[in-house]
Amino acid sequence: MTDAMIDLPGVIAKSDDADFLRELIQDAAQRLMDIEVAAVCGAGHGERSPDRENQRNGYRPRQWDTRAGTIGLNIPKLRKGSYFPTFLEPRRTAEKALMAVIQEAYIHGVSTRSVDDLVRAMGLTGTSKSLVSRLCEEIDERVQAFLNRPLEGDWPFLWLDATYVKLREGGRIVSMAVIVAVAVNTDGRREILGITVMPSEAETFWTDFLRSLTRRGLRGVQMVISDAHEGLKAAARKVLSAGWQRCRVHFQRNLLARVSKANKPVVSAVVKTVFAEKNRDRAHARWREVADNLRDRFRDVAELMERAFVRHWSEDNGERRTRRAGLHGL
After folding, report:
1. Would you give the end-to-end CA distance of the chain in angstroms?
2. What confidence score (pLDDT) does residue 91 get?
C-alpha cells in the first residue's frame, strides 16, 4: 500500500475527470451504507430472512463534502430507530480509509491491507467484510478501465509530473515514482490520461510510459510541460516529437528553495511579474531585469534565473532552426 498519501483526489478534481471520481465515491458510499444497513437489519434489501430485526423505510438526502467536491447521498431510513453512516461520523477514519482505497486503485491496485483498514474503520466483520472486499475489487476494476481507456482526437498540450511515495513491496518499504499525465484536447477539455508507478524517473521508464499512451491513441502533442528532468525531456523528444516547456510552478519551487521563509513572498511576487507580460520580448527583458535586481540580496536566485534563461534561449533557438530544416523531433 502507499505509506505516503498524495492528493490524487485533489489532482483529479481539478480536471474534467472529476465527474468520474465523484461518481466512483458516490457509488462506493451508497454500497457501504447498504452493507452497514444490512448488518443493522439482519438481512439485505428485499431479502427474506428469519434473522431480520428491522426494515428499511425510504431515504433522506444528505450532501457530503469531499476533496473531490460535494456529493449527494441517499441515506437509508429504518422503520425502528435511526441509522447514520459510519463514514460521516466526526473523527472517524472511514472516509480517509475509503479515499486510500480509491487512491491505491489509481496507483497500483487495491491491497489487502487497505481493505482491512476500511473494514476496521467501519467496524464490520464476517459477511460484511467479504462484501467490502468485493466493493474494493470493483473500484479497482473501474479505475483500471478508466486509466486504460482509448484516447481519441488530438491532445496538443501534455503535462507530466512525478511524486515519490513510499510503497510496500515484497515485505519491504521502497521509494517509487508515481507518474501522472494530464492533457488538454482541441476542445479545451482537460483529462488525466494515465497514472503509473515507476522505480525512478530514468529515461527508459519515461519512454515506456509515453509509449503506453501512444498505444492507447495519444497523438497531436505539440508541447510537453514538465520540470527540467533530462530523462523526461529525452523521452518526450523520442516518443512524441514534441516541443518542451519548463513548468513554471516547478521552476518557482526550485527558485524559492534558495531563499529563507521570510523572503519567499517577496521573491515570489517579483518573479511572477515576468509571467504577467503578454509580449515575448518584454517577458525576456523583464526576466533579466528581475534577475539583476535580485542579484545583490539573492545571488543563488539570480544565478538560477540566468542559467534557466540561457538554456531556454539556446533550446528555443535550436528548436526553431530544427523546425525550419524540417527535422524537428528527429
Report:
1. 40
2. 57
- Segment 303-324 shows an average pLDDT of 58
CB 121 within 8 A of CB 86: yes
SS3 192: strand
**Residue whose grid cell is 427474506:** 48
What phi, psi does 208 have (nearest 5°)?
-60, -40
Distance of CA 174 to the CA centre of its chain: 20
SS3 (DSSP) at 212: helix
Q: Residue 328 has what pLDDT?
A: 30
Q: Looking at the chain, how many residues does it have?
A: 330
Cβ contact 166:174 at 8 Å: yes
Residue with grid cell 515576468, as numbered in its chain? 274
What is the CB-side half-sphere exposure of residue 76 using CA atoms within 13 A? 26
Alpha-carbon distance 25 to 325, whole Å?
Answer: 51
- How many angstroms separate the CA atoms of 118 and 96, rounded? 9
pTM for the full model? 0.69
Residue 209 · residue 198 · CB < 8 Å: yes
142-195 pLDDT, tens per residue?
Answer: 888 888 999 999 999 999 988 887 777 777 788 888 888 999 999 998 888 998
Ramachandran quadrant class, 63 (left: phi over 0; alpha: psi -120 to 50; beta: rest): beta
Query: How far, CA to CA in Å, does 171 sit from each of 123, 168, 232, 239?
Result: 27, 6, 30, 35
Tens digit of each residue's pLDDT (9 = 90 or more) over 240-273: 998 888 888 878 888 888 989 988 898 889 888 8
The three grid cell numbers given for residue 69, joined into one nine-digit string = 467536491
